[in-house]
Amino acid sequence: MEYQQERLSVTRLAYIDSEIAGFFTLVADCIDAKQVDPEDGNPTGNTRR
């Protein structure tokens, strides 16, 4: 539930005739900027986007 509250994942249920026929979960990722150390960066300042 923590990931759903943070909007990092969501699960959907699929129904057929009021019965669960399946489910899927969409997942994302997040980097918390407070946990990034400036020394972790690329020394050239180039980043891949």
Key descriptive features of the protein:
single chain, 35% strand, 49 residues, mainly beta, two-stranded antiparallel ribbon
Describe this structure in words.
- The longest helix has 4 residues, at 2-5.
- The model has no long low-confidence stretch (mean pLDDT 76).
- This protein has a domain at 2-29.
- The protein has a two-stranded antiparallel sheet with strand order 1-2.
- By secondary structure, it is mainly beta.
- Helix content is 8%, strand content 35%.
- It contains 1 helix and 2 strands; from the N terminus they run H-E-E.
- It has one helix spanning 2-5; strands at residues 9-16, 19-27.
Q: Supply Rg.
A: 19 Å
Give the ordered list of helices and strands. Answer: HEE
Helix content: under 10%
Could you tell me how far the N terminus lies from the C terminus, measured between alpha carbons in angstroms?
30 Å
> Per the principal axes of the C-alpha atoms, what is the gross shape?
rod-shaped
The assigned structural class equals: mainly beta
